[in-house]
Design a protein that fits this description.
This protein is mainly β. The protein is built from 3 helices and 11 strands.
Length: 167
């Protein structure tokens, strides 16, 4: 199969996104003593890089069971004709499954466009019986305002720990 971006290149871009400053302030969810925010959304080639962070304000560590990316209807009705499309992330920068206070990750998904009646949802669910689930809802307008990313930014990025290996 044709590969548009190798994994090493994807990791370099993900580290550069991880090191960039937060630009999105309106995508925030607070629930169960947790705060989830989308820091940045970048479009690189045929992929979207979604940088998000979680803050746990409880004393109980959060055990991540799974991270799901869904394309769902904006208005959830009780009708049976609502469509939900499950998207599989291609790359995840931080595969940690447990954290106490702070967690940050960059997910890479394939570039997509969708109608204005749909939203992109990031669901992070816990492994416990309580089932704390955090949902970040990303509107289509936020996807359209995603920043482009040049290779020049990679040269200036000091966040990537093994930059000299992949030069």
């Amino acid at each position: 199969p044709e590969v548009t971006m190798p994994m090493s290149e994807m990791a370099r871009y993900a580290w550069a996104v991880y090191g960039s400053r937060r630009k999105y302030n309106q995508i925030v969810t607070r629930v169960h003593g947790m705060k989830a925010t989308v820091n940045n959304i970048y479009a690189v080639g045929d992929y979207f890089f979604i940088d998000y962070s979680l803050r746990n304000r409880t004393r109980i560590p959060y055990d991540i069971e799974e991270i799901r990316v869904k394309l769902t209807d904006k208005k959830e009705t009780k009708a049976t004709n609502s469509q939900t499309i499950e998207l599989t992330p291609i790359y995840s920068l931080n595969p940690v499954k447990k954290f106490k206070k702070n967690y940050r990750n960059v997910l890479v998904i394939e570039k997509l466009t969708f109608p204005d009646e749909k939203v992109l949802r990031l669901e992070i669910s816990e492994n416990q019986i309580s089932g704390r689930v955090i949902t970040l809802t990303i509107e289509y307008e936020d996807i359209l305002n995603a920043d482009g990313f040049d290779s020049d930014i990679l040269k200036n990025s000091s966040c990537y720990p093994y930059y000299y290996i992949y030069r």
